[in-house]
Specification:
509 residues; alpha+beta; 16-stranded antiparallel barrel; 10 helices
Length: 509
């Protein structure tokens, strides 16, 4: 990095080239200013830092902490797990970041921007008159404040975590009729305000980090069915979490949170078991209740969700250096939820005109895995090929998506000259529940208003994404993205859509 900086920043040459026309005093002033500028740049750019990857964005921090195995030996400094420190544009300005870290305070600030435009034309005709071929931009800036109170104040094992975001823009997929999977993940849920509170909770680590108890405003889907690898992609069927797991409006996911309590235990170094209680709030993703995220009174709590998950995190390969994560889990939802086909007598509510039957309990389940298959360079632990795969299966009585299957590959550092660039390929398949299909068929046959913004019967949908993340410089990622929507919105009457765009991620501090 030092070499590349010197190539474009040459104060002496750029100044002396005008020496014939400048006074001696002015030349001296220019040199002094250049030296000062070089010094300031050195504070920002020459401080050592780890390699930047998209899977270290602020939004995945809780998943990183959950998936951190016990150390081989107890950490000598604190019983609080170490906070993530991704490389940043200003890694350690004036030594401030290191000064704070030594005192147990970790502050991060980043920006993610996502742009996508349709290469194909949408469906034509009177029914689709609002559709158009267009492009959109969406993004967010996010801050994270993690405090190790054991280091700061001697409160053994205690830490607190706070994340805020501000979001802007919109998503392009709705322009051609898709409402299932956003082309840009960084859209919605943050109230269209300058500062939206995502999470604020405390965590106590006991018994040498073998037991962690957390409580406060927490996002269920940042702790359960989560992975730091998902947001190497841009589309919402993959990034954040596989979209099928957030099919319920009562499952709080980033950037939404609810009052919650979570316990995680590690019976072995590479095994964890966790469970929690997340109080379900009506309208958790809607502006009316959660515009800023600072609404704490719980007046709209309507039930609770109890997730349970077990994970195995082995190290494969001859040298036991290839990390893997295998997890299985389920969540029971204790909230009255409408049946998507039947009324209380078991007949189609579309034909009887009665209200849909209510189910007090519903559920979701998931099986997820990722495994590094090979490593290109021993000294670079995140280089090589990693495979991801999984399936989500939801209660078919109440879900829109009864199951989703996904598969992805990440190939990082395959060019020796570009060790931190990453090639990504992901494919997701989403199946619409049979109950929903039958209801939409009845609505269509009886000429009634449709549901789910559908203009036809929804059956299944798939998304293919291919991207290449360019490590521009420390703390900066630029990622051209190609997306292909098979059967947008799950409908056969909508033509496939191809999209081209980019995702950028800048870790500022």
């Amino acid at each position: 990095m030092k070499k590349s900086i010197c190539c474009f920043y040459k104060p002496a040459d750029s100044t002396l080239s005008f020496g014939a026309s400048l006074s001696k005093r002015r030349i001296q002033w220019q040199l002094k200013r250049s030296i000062c500028g070089f010094f300031l740049l050195s504070l920002a750019f020459f401080t050592p830092a780890q390699a930047q990857t998209d899977d270290l964005a602020i939004g995945t921090e809780p998943a990183i902490r959950v998936d951190t195995p016990l150390p081989n030996k107890d950490a000598p400094t604190s019983s609080v797990p170490s906070f993530a420190r991704p490389e940043a544009l200003f890694a350690d300005p004036g030594g401030l970041t290191s000064w704070l870290r030594r005192r147990g305070i970790a502050f991060l600030l980043d920006n993610t921007n996502e742009f996508a435009g349709a290469l194909t034309k949408p469906a034509q005709g009177e029914k689709f008159r609002s559709y158009r071929q267009g492009a959109s931009n969406a993004g967010q800036y996010a801050t994270s404040l993690n405090i190790d109170w054991e280091t700061l104040a001697g409160l053994k094992g205690l830490s607190t975590h706070m994340i805020t975001v501000g979001r802007y823009g919109t998503t392009a997929n709705r322009m051609f009729g898709d409402w299932l999977n956003h082309s840009s993940e960084d859209y919605g849920g943050a109230g269209n305000v300058v500062v939206h509170l995502v999470m604020l909770y405390a965590e106590e680590n006991l018994f040498g980090k073998r037991l962690a108890i957390a409580g406060g405003r927490m996002a269920q889907l940042s702790d359960f069915a989560a992975s730091e690898l998902f947001c190497n992609f841009m589309n919402n069927s993959m990034c954040g979490r596989p979209k099928g797991i957030s099919d319920s409006n009562y499952f709080a996911g980033y950037p939404a949170a609810t009052w919650a309590f979570r316990v995680r235990g590690r019976p072995a170094r590479d095994v964890y078991v966790q469970a929690g209680v997340y109080f379900a709030e009506n309208g958790v993703y809607q502006v009316a209740q959660h515009r800023t995220g600072f609404k704490f009174n719980g007046a709209n709590i309507v039930g609770h969700v109890v997730p349970v998950e077990a994970g195995w995190e082995p190290k494969a390969g001859r040298s036991h250096s290839l990390p893997g994560h295998y997890k299985i889990g389920a969540a029971l939802q204790d909230v009255p939820t409408a049946d998507t086909y039947r009324d209380s007598t078991g007949k189609p509510y579309v034909l009887t005109g009665a209200k849909a039957a209510q189910h007090q309990y519903s559920w979701s389940s998931w099986l997820m895995l990722d495994q590094q298959l090979l490593r290109y360079r021993k000294t670079q632990k995140d280089s090589g090929i990693t495979a991801l795969g999984g399936v989500v299966y939801n209660d078919p009585r109440t879900a829109l998506r009864d199951y989703q299957v996904y598969f992805a590959l990440l190939n990082r550092g395959f060019w020796r000259s570009r060790p931190y660039d990453t090639l990504g390929l992901a494919f997701t398949y989403t199946h619409i529940a049979k109950n929903v299909q039958k209801t939409e068929a009845l609505l269509q046959s009886t000429h009634q208003a449709t549901i789910n913004h559908a203009t036809g019967i929804q059956r299944h949908a798939s998304i293919l994404e291919l991207n290449y993340a360019v490590h521009v410089m420390r703390g900066v990622i630029f990622q051209p993205v190609f997306q292909y929507y098979f059967r947008p919105n799950g409908q056969g009457n909508l033509p496939d859509a191809a999209m081209l765009g980019f995702k950028s991620h800048i870790e500022i501090f």
